Amino acid sequence: xxxxxxxxxxxxxxxxxxxxxxxxxxxxxxxxxxxxxxxxxxxxxxxxxxxxxxxxxxxxxxxxxxxxxxxxxxxxxxxxxxxxxxxxxxxxxxxxxxxxxxxxxxxxxxxxxxxxxxxxxxxxxxxxxxxxxxxxxxxxxxxxxxxxxxxxxxxxxxxxxxxxxxxxxxxxxxxxxxxxxxxxxxxxxxxxxxxxxxxxxxxxxxxxxxxxxxxxxxxxxxxxxxxxxxxxxxxxxxxxxxxxxxxxxxxxxxxxxxxxxxxxxxxxxxxxxxxxxxxxxxxxxxxxxxxxxxxxxxxxxxxxxxxxxxxxxxxxxxxxxxxxxxxxxxxxxxxxxxxxxxxxxxxxxxxxxxxxxxxxxxxxxxxxxxxxxxxxxxxxxxxxxxxxxxxxxxxxxxxxxxxxxxxxxxxxxxxxxxxxxxxxxxxxxxxxxxxxxxxxxxxxxxxxxxxxxxxxxxxxxxxxxxxxxxxxxxxxxxxxxxxxxxxxxxxxxxxxxxxxxxxxxxxxxxxxxxxxxxxxxxxxxxxxxxxxxxxxxxxxxxxxxxxxxxxxxxxxxxxxxxxxxxxxxxxxxxxxxxxxxxxxxxxxxxxxxxxxxxxxxxxxxxxxxxxxxxxxxxxxxxxxxxxxxxxxxxxxxxxxxxxxxxxxxxxxxxxxxxxxxxxxxxxxxxxxxxxxxxxxxxxxxxxxxxxxxxxxxxxxxxxxxxxxxxxxxxxxxxxxxxxxxxxxxxxxxxxxxxxxxxxxxxxxxxxxxxxxxxxxxxxxxxxxxxxxxxxxxxxxxxxxxxxxxxxxxxxxxxxxxxxxxxxxxxxxxxxxxxxxxxxxxxx
Amino acid sequence: xxxxxxxxxxxxxxxxxxxxxxxxxxxxxxxxxxxxxxxxxxxxxxxxxxxxxxxxxxxxxxxxxxxxxxxxxxxxxxxxxxxxxxxxxxxxxxxxxxxxxxxxxxxxxxxxxxxxxxxxxxxxxxxxxxxxxxxxxxxxxxxxxxxxxxxxxxxxxxxxx
Lengths: 827, 161
Ligand code: FES
Ligand code: FES
Known about the structure:
A: 3 domains, eight-stranded mixed β-sheet, six-stranded mixed β-sheet, 31 strands, B: DNA polymerase, domain 1, five-stranded mixed β-sheet
């Protein structure tokens, strides 16, 4: 059962309900095709004579490649051809790397060249008439390896005696640097206590979208252009990686998407595979199709960042006010950086989490290991940081005997401090964390907590309550990349929309985005409908993305919680421009005073105060498109086809101080979780759960709530079931849905949801991006377990992944978990 | 003697009889998708865990990646493409839309076929029975909350017109 609970007393910042379609949960435009199985996912696209691709992958985590022999595979009837690393190295350049030395010395190609660096890395590709034949023939490719010692831990990887993955870089360090904001030494001097935590560990997992990655790639010899029907979720940047590697201009790559079966960031770094497919399509002169196998997605697509926090120090005042923190963080990037080292700065969007912490010192190192590469994964890099801030709060509270609710409220940034500048120059736009917490606590019946503890005890269970407070920072300032590497030429952000009034009066919208379930067609139609005075049914939003028609910008895509701002601002800008053109045209045709005397309603441009004088949109579309003789010169620029590029108002951050605003909006998620732990076995059940969200103005509340449910499911899965552990040889232990258990219907606890709306002052619609959440469920489960286990020697939760056996260990040996945590007097 | 690598199969899919020579190792899901072009049935895993490929074979909900096409000789199969009729959505399809029970829509066809199988055999399922019936279908987007509500609403006939 789920409940949706609106706030009872309206908080001040809640706007009056809007008129129009925005704010209503209208039926989703996407649904009709999807519920009938009539969506078009990339694997549904077929071409005459296409070949199926199967990748031959490394069975070793780390090995030299001595030789590759594809002759037996090529001899099989029905096999169209192969590709190996040597050809890739000859025909392409290494992908562009974002780091400074040594990270930028790394040479990353579409297939392994000379060496393999993780189990599952593609070494060769075979193309054949059928999927089955390609797979069989791949077995015949002979690869001789010379195994090397695998490096499997980021902290150990930077030790001087560690084996080095990338000889050309000479070190496993991708990037390292320090961040020093406020005055940490002063904070230590002012503190009454210092809490020290030796080690916190955030584990590796991924959101594993149900649709695997893939593409159908065609090469047009005449124009030397590739067309990729695929599920890339960030085509703008995908092209920036691929085109230079293929030694062509960006116009030679046409990226087409329609329906995408979930992305969550895992479809951002597909460029190595896609470049291999481009080479094959050209070499074999035929369309080639590749659909990743589930096992391959788990072993060799992307994982979320795994992060170890060492030597944490938290200066605290006697009243529970925390002044900041100091930490050494190690991030494990896996075998190739690809989207990294951006994770080394993205966390700084939420440096103090939800807290008024002013003094921060961070030493951050990211290293390569012989594991799957990492890439953005729902909550990218901020989730790790927010887990850290929530663990800090609860560990400090536990050690100093403070109440987890009180200590949060004492340290939360207050609503009257918004907009709030963090110590590193980010601006939290709006929000009311304490109020969200109260709603969450109400929803889980906080006032009856002690009673429920006793009831659980009588049944042999331990009951605990935990809170997860997070922020979903959305609309990136890509200038933050310059804080890692001042030479990089990325900054700001953009998104594009075009809105056209067509010949029969159809309103047609094209987006630069690549939705994977985020309902852009519906939400865009709501915004357009309100501005043009029509209904969402009258607005035709093109499904999917096609870079061929210049409908995109450099940062186009769907990632990083931004559509509600970047996408909708672009839609709004284009629609306002169109509305203006319609008014100007109608004023001339109807002989009205001027555009200001025209209003748009019910599909007509009408002269205000004169109901007789009205021009239907159909007539407007027809006049401009096919009946335009004799129009006066002042309408020369009226095309009724308006494109708008939205650019958020960002500055390049200060690279010296690593200071500046890194994201435009901050949605809030405050979750409360109640668990019951079995005293004997450590098996636990979530018996009550509430997720309270504040993403500013909600254009479609039902869609927002759906995102909250989904993000919560991901977090709860990661907290208890989902993990990517490797054995000592570097073999992934959970390479399919048997071993990698994601939540099924019976695993999900009842979810209660609540919300408030604190409109963003920085987006014209008051919206904030909100799709990722901040992993609040992971943090809340950790906190709830720690609370539940308190009577058993107060074990401390220092890892993000807590399967039942881990809880059992905590109960058995609480001292082991406490060993690394101590409270000292301040200096 | 050469081993037999293909076999003639006659199968009724969504009311139409198809007779084909089928590669012996071809999975039913690939037969449906690649040969009959019924691409509504999806593939989400290679171990039979996700249920994206669920279809109804002789009145049983079946994961079509777990059967070879040659095994369905003589069978009657329903896929997602058969659910809507006379231009109208099936009540389950409508309920999924009403309750926002799909985001990306990739799990949806398999989920709907499992739900149809449930309602075909149990007109008034409890919430637990609903969760049990879709236990073999993974959805990575919705957290199942709205899916369970949608199936319950369809069972009660509470769907929008
Ligand atoms: S594709 Fe059949 S169960 Fe996953
Ligand atoms: S809606 Fe995306 S997997 Fe279910």
